[in-house]
Design brief:
9 strands, about 20% strand, 6-stranded antiparallel beta sheet
Amino acid sequence: EDELEKLREEALALLAEGKLVLSKSELLELVDEFEKISENTSYDAVLALMRTYSRLGEKQQLALKDTEGIKIAQQIIAAYNHEDASTGIRTEDLEWNIRLVIEDVEDDTVAKSIESALENSTVLQHWDIYLEDVLTGERYIAYKTICIKVPAGLLGDWKVYDELCVVHYTDDGEIEVLNCGTDEEYVFFNAAEFSIYAMVGMMEETSQTENHPAFTVPSGTQTGAEANSGWLIWVIIAAVGVAALMGIIVLKKRTADEE
């Protein structure tokens, strides 16, 4: 009776903590379900089993801990969680139960803000990126940097730009420009916080104004101002030449009248 009372108290304590307490037969059924898991078992099926497992108390989890089904279930969930099915954006730096969530940003306000803040920039793509613990359904905060890999094919003809960078648009509306790397398949960058990230193409051309043509600053020490000053000097020389020519014409006309 003392042993039964002890088990009852333990069960009540677990229930008070929000844990799940199974009877012996229910636990054996759960073990059987895990033993049926294979690489072809669906994500939803293994996630439901792992959610049940995560709610068990430590003692009942021990009955399942070393089963092959647990390992396969974690692999199936990790493969799904760490690569977004619609975009192919992926990461390898997360625990099996943490999902990388990629959502489109329908409003173009963010893109316009970025292009306004960065001269000669074009937002190629941008997404709201965050993490979720699939066992609880709650957003997850990572206390380390996460490498995000974006398929280069999502960015169109991005190589026409002089530079490619990543812009983090924070929840406070601030803009952080991040470096990125590329390989044959991906553009990758490190993310420490999660909100909106934009892939931005940059051109190094001088902005064209309404009254003056644009000047491409050559390599070397010449600046845009020096390039513009050279253009103005030629305008002045041309104007002086026209004035001198008009003076010669007037002088010839007077000579002809006097004769």
